[in-house]
Write a structure and sequence with these properties.
With about 140 residues, the protein is α/β, with parallel strands linked by helices. It is about 40% helix and about 20% strand. The chain is globular, with a radius of gyration of 15 Å.
């Protein structure tokens, strides 16, 4: 069984909940990623900020990214996956919550991020099709 730990991108960097969206965009650019976990001052995961969130919820609404805090865009409880959970569980969680990226947690510690592409590489073709279909529909 392939686990999240085996397919994730390790050492995911957080953006602080009090950091600006502008800072988050700069960090995404530097790291070459499309999402950053949002961590609070208590170092707990608060959510995930995506490049799409920045465009739709900040820029598209005429808000100033240098004034909007990353934590303002965290919605509810973060959807995560355990480091030792298998690819099928990751697939199920992504489909159920309609997310393309999942923070990977080991105990209470953020240890990485697993993306749709990571899961696609780890699963047989029919399962990949199921994931892509579920995440591409409205």
């Amino acid at each position: 069984m392939t686990t999240a730990r085996e397919i994730m991108t390790p050492s995911a960097e957080c953006i602080g909940a009090e950091d600006t969206v502008q800072e988050a965009a700069r960090r995404m650019t530097e790291l070459g990623v499309g999402a950053l976990p949002i961590c609070g001052t208590d170092n707990r995961l608060k959510g995930v900020l995506t490049d799409r969130d920045i465009v739709v919820k900040v820029l598209g609404k005429g808000k100033d990214p240098s004034q909007v805090k990353a934590g303002e865009l965290a919605q509810g409880e973060a959807v995560t996956i355990g480091a030792d959970d298998g690819a099928e569980e990751i697939l199920s969680t992504m489909i159920h919550h309609k997310v393309r990226r999942l923070p990977v947690i080991d105990g209470h510690d953020l240890v990485g991020m697993v993306a749709q592409a990571d899961v696609a590489r780890a699963l047989p073709d029919p399962k990949v099709g199921q994931l892509l279909e579920a995440l591409s529909s409205d």
